[in-house]
Specification:
Two copies of one chain form a homodimer. Chain A is an alpha/beta fold. Chain A has 14 helices and 16 strands. Chain A is 44% helix and 22% strand. At the A-B interface, helix 1, helix 2, strand 13, strand 14 and helix 10 of A face helix 1, helix 2, strand 13, strand 14 and helix 10 of B.
Chain lengths: 412, 412
């Protein structure tokens, strides 16, 4: 029953109007000033003034001529999102790598990097050193090309406190009460862009959502196979964070009978049956290169995929078991959230063609609503970059929410 | 990443402004025109015009004089929500009763009724007859007192298709593919208010949410003990419906080892272990009056509560078992959704003082996040009327979303 936020004063009305115009151009595409006026209900002079501000700030540019619907006379010049000089950075800390991805305001990738790292063994301080170095290099490269970095989102597994910027607990990387944002700020120094923290699976869900929201999908669950299992939920077009940011913590439920010890200290947690540990345990012996954490994860997963494609019995049996363990958890999420899509990411996406038919059939069988409530299970197309991409998008969203802030940065 | 809706034309700008002013008065309380201008950023003349329209439509009235913050000179007249003549109706179909509750725009109860009925035995046609009669009488009484009924929300258990107005399946009342809204419209005739359909637990969650939203609670799960178990989810201040309206279907998960047959045809469903059937099976023999569906449910539950208060061993043991069966399902919901509150309704609320300490302790033990992620388990204060109240609120919300529609009705 929530409605539009109530603007508090005239300055915030201007900000709200700039934001409305910019989001209109992002969501509905380029259009003339006259059409912006029609679409927003803003007077012609106001639209003129707002687009001039956005042009000056480098967030939009003049596009092709557009003949207005039904208009007589000369066609209007259209306005479109520009912002190729405006970047958001997502930086991810995973169990065995750190990575960075930058997007410009148009959503194009402007920087990308992945560095293998045994995060648990290195410990928080050394990891933050490495992440800070990676971010600083990314910022330097983008600034060197004349770009402006408006923000950084750091992604980690586990339960994070977004407001405090701390990782409360992340058993898979062995972190507890780590002041990650403060640690990064200190290392990046005073000139660094605004930095925030969010859980990796939630950012992955955001990235997946923006790929499908144009198809009117408003409800989505993103389940990503990593060392653990991350779940990110979009309901009614909104990211579900929960009161404390802990939403989506399903990896430690006991859904499949098992006694396998978990990093959390309990036994039989779901993630010990579908996470990377289970996959490698089922598919290979400890000496196998696919189990070596110092080899890039993408390389190792690709090797396992090659084996599956070649019909290797042990690999295929491992994937069958992962699928059988995965289905009850997905069915549970579908019963509770009734998403239009369940998007499988991480290693699930790597082996999707070997999992998806069997998993989909089992979920349809288990879910109470007919035909699984209309839910379809699909594979992420974002590979291992989804989380960092979600982080970059979240950093850029500050521009859409308040264009004035970034225009001041650009001009200041 | 959603923002305010984009208004499509000047007429919708006026509607959006009327809605904004009305919601401001609802959410933030009475205030002068000058302060409405400050709070909304709307020009003084526009505020004058908008409040005049709302006054004329009977949705607001002049209130007490208010001295504006820092203003010199005579104090401004404040404006406040009126709408004592504007009503929304919620009508509930439950397993063994039908009920109605009407609220006026200020949220005051303007009509209330509950009628015992064996809904499963009666069948959809006879039930719709009885519900239509109850609604028609309610409308007549309200209209007789000069009131305007802006809408009716029908609540049923089970999976409903809100857009089509059909109950897809509701195993506890034995309904499948029932065109409930069309059936009601036909019976109520052409002059009837707009009628919609929603799931009972979702409406209960809305009613609970509006009681606590002022305390900045934005994430809540409402779990109601009925014949089955209904779950309604509010995440980030929004009702979670799911893509097909099926969200919250947790009653048929197997969470507690059991072979008890369920109305859905499976065995061991969670609701057979915590629903009314389990409560009565544990607490009484079949001949006991508390098991008689023709006795008002409130009376029967009150009898059981009296027995518990008197220390009756069988009743207390029954409640202990219900609590032990309840905890794993609540923990699951808390792990996935991280709500600030779990509100227990239906028969859980009736026996709350005997359940809540033990259930809370078990949930804290089971949930992965420290201290259950800050979640508190509380009892509904709405008794059996929560669902119908949520329906009435939803019917009234159309007024807040588009005051013009009801002002036209009132003047037309």
């Amino acid at each position: 029953m929530a409605g539009p936020a109530v603007a508090r004063d005239r300055s915030s009305t201007r900000r709200a109007n700039l934001s409305m115009v910019l989001r209109l151009l992002r969501d509905e595409g380029p259009r003339s000033r006259a059409r912006i006026g029609d679409d927003t209900g803003l007077p012609k002079a106001t639209v003129s003034h707002l687009t001039a501000e956005l042009l000056e700030g480098g967030l939009v540019r003049e596009g092709a001529a557009e003949r207005d619907r039904g208009a007589v006379g000369r066609p209007g010049q259209s306005v479109e999102i520009d912002g190729r000089g405006v970047h958001g950075i997502g930086a991810e800390i995973n169990v065995d790598y750190i990575s960075l991805l930058a997007l410009d305001l148009r959503g194009q990738v402007s920087a990308e990097q992945r560095i293998p790292l045994d995060v648990r063994a290195a410990g928080p301080e050394a990891v933050l050193d490495a992440v800070a170095r990676m971010i600083a290099e990314g910022i330097e490269a983008l600034r060197g090309a004349g770009g402006l970095v408006v923000g950084v989102t750091l992604a980690t597994p586990g339960a994070v406190n977004m407001d405090a910027g701390t990782v409360d607990y992340a058993s898979n990387i062995g972190w507890r009460e780590v002041a990650a944002v403060a640690g990064l700020r200190e290392r990046l120094g005073p000139g660094a862009p605004e930095t925030h923290l969010e859980n990796d699976a939630k950012l992955g869900a955001l990235a997946e959502y923006l790929l499908v929201s144009a198809d009117n999908v408003r409800d989505l669950v993103h389940v990503t196979g990593q060392t653990g299992v991350g779940v990110g939920i979009i309901a009614g077009g909104q990211l579900v964070r929960g009161a404390g940011g802990y939403a989506g913590e399903i990896g430690h439920l006991r859904l499949v009978p098992s006694d396998q010890p978990c990093a959390c200290g309990r036994r039989g947690c779901w993630e010990t049956m579908v996470g990377r540990g289970a996959l490698l345990r089922y598919a290979a012996d400890p000496g196998d290169m696919v189990c070596d954490p110092m080899v890039d994860l993408g390389t190792r997963l690709a090797e396992l995929r090659d084996r599956a494609h070649a019909g290797d019995g042990r690999t295929l049996e491992a994937l069958r078991r992962i699928g059988d363990n995965l289905a009850p958890g997905l069915a549970l999420l579908v019963d509770i959230l009734n998403p239009r899509l369940v998007v499988l990411g991480g290693h699930f996406a790597f082996f999707g063609e070997h999992l998806i038919d069997s998993v989909s059939a089992q979920v349809r069988e288990l879910v109470m609503a007919p035909d699984a409530g209309g839910c379809e299970i699909v594979l992420s197309r974002l590979g291992l970059s989804g989380t960092a991409r979600g982080g970059a998008l979240l950093a850029l969203d500050t521009v859409y929410q308040d264009p004035v802030r970034v225009m001041n940065l650009a001009n200041g």
